[in-house]
Amino acid sequence: MIRVPRPRFSIYGQLVFWTSLIILLIMSGVLYIIQEREINAIYQEKKDRGLLMARYISEMNLRRLILWDLESIDENISGLIRDELAYVIFYDADGRPVVVSESIADNPEVINRTSCAGDVSPGEVFIKNFKVALRGISLEVMEIEVPVFVPGSDKKWGSVKIGLKLEDVYRRIQRTRMLLLGFGLGAFLLTLLATNIMARKLTRPIKNLVEGTRRLSRGDFSYRIPVVSSNEVGDLTSSFNEMAEELARAREKMEEANRRLVQAEKLASIGRLSATIAHEIRNPLTSVKLNIQKLAELSNLGETEKEHLEIARAGIEQIEKFIKDLLSYTRASTLQKDYFSLEEIMEESIKMLQGSLKEKEIRVKKFYQAGLPPAYVDADRLRQVFLNVLRNAYEAVDHGGEIEVSIELNRQYDRCCFEIRISDDGCGIPEKDWENIFEPFFTTKSSGAGLGLANARRIIEQHGGSIRVIPREVPGSCFLITLPLEEIGQEDLT
Q1: CA–CA–CA angle 81, 85, 89 (5° rounding)
Q2: 283, 269, 267, 379: which is closest to 328 by C-alpha?
Q3: Mean pLDDT lowest for which of 90-99, 184-193, 268-277, 387-396?
Q4: Minimal CA–CA distance to 472: which of 424, 402, 418, 417?
Q5: I want to staple 126 with a disulfide (CB 3.0 to 4.6 A). Which of 72, 145, 337, 363 is the partner?
């Protein structure tokens, strides 16, 4: 069975179409009612005017009709036939035409037709509209006939019938219709414009939501939709943004979990490798080191031989240090945590490098926030982290350079945390390597195994914190270390 795709209409198009259609129908109905009322008012005005004219002609010629002065009546009505008055006919009491205006003299059907032939009351009025031929021209007329009575008497002396041309009525009706049509068209165009603006305003957030879902489906969790209204659409937009934030946090946690999993696999591989290295190299290396020391103690060695033996001893110590760092990185250790002052741990780390710092005349600037609470940490392991980062800063700066150290408590997070910054004005680290430097065996130095910063990150993460490189406005590098403030520290702070 072949399915025929249904035509697709956007919400914007449907909203504009149906809103415009409903408003057009309502407006058409309203304008129709207004038109009918205006037409009725125009006809009523014509009727009132014609009735007033018929009674005026009746009263003006009443005495002549009583005296049967028909010639005078004829002369009188001849002067009235102009503009809107088409004809005038006088009837006697029996309904016979006695005076007929010349304009209708050739139309016996109109002349011989009267509505007042029988008994009528003084206040009766007979009105009807029809087409009539006057001198070969077809006209629409309103015919009004009233009986003629002497005031205070019940005797009918006759009746007067006049025919009013309706050309002016039709012209007024036409003008009214054109005016209403123009007003309706203008109102409809304004309504269409307003509907278009309203539809755009209502559908724009929906389009943003559609775009947001597309961006999310492509993995862009940073996209946020601006909230431009406080109605249900605004609530939906806010919910979407919250969902995007939750997805972004979930992805970060997943990436962090994946990173930790990869790190654990690396540690497992390195652990097996380090165990092999320790077994295969450490024992023979110890024997070599002892033999070199014994040879160096011989008195008959020359300066050249002693220098070569010292180079060999230094190489062996470097190999031992590499094995020690490797074992330290892979060994699962338990933190010995207690409450310590971060300022004191930092000062101890700086003192351990004091000699090297003086040798290169490096200035160390310190910024410690006053009243910092103690941190719940393993002091020895944290000192190892500080010393490693400080040593990297020392190696990066030139002679006479500067290292800045700051410790403060940040209250902007859900939980308060310590922020330790160690920055230098050295050559800096390329941004592409900001994350790689924390990977094991990655190094930008000519010497070293690339395990120092990897070990530092592992220690900081064991403390529930983080270490990373952050941008710096001036040349150099800046390491940011965050450590959580434990509950007891928060209570002491308050």
Answers
A1: 75
A2: 267
A3: 268-277
A4: 424
A5: 145
Task: Indicate whether 51 and 28 sit together in one domain.
Answer: yes
Name the residue type at position 379.
A
Residues 62 and 88 in one domain: yes
Amino acid at 123: G
Confidence band (pLDDT; 50, 70, 90) for 436? confident
For residue 8, tell me if it sits in a domain. no
Q: How far apart are the first and last CA of the chain?
A: 75
Range of the domain at 153: 13-174
Q: What is the largest CA-CA distance in the chain?
A: 179
Confidence label for 431 from pLDDT (cuts 50, 70 and 90): confident
CATH number of the domain enclosing 115: 3.30.450.20
- The mean-pLDDT minimum among 43-47, 149-153, 258-262 falls in 258-262
pLDDT of res. 48:
92
Task: With respect to residue 222, please indicate whether it lies within any of the assigned structural domains.
Answer: no
For the entire predicted model, the pTM comes to 0.46
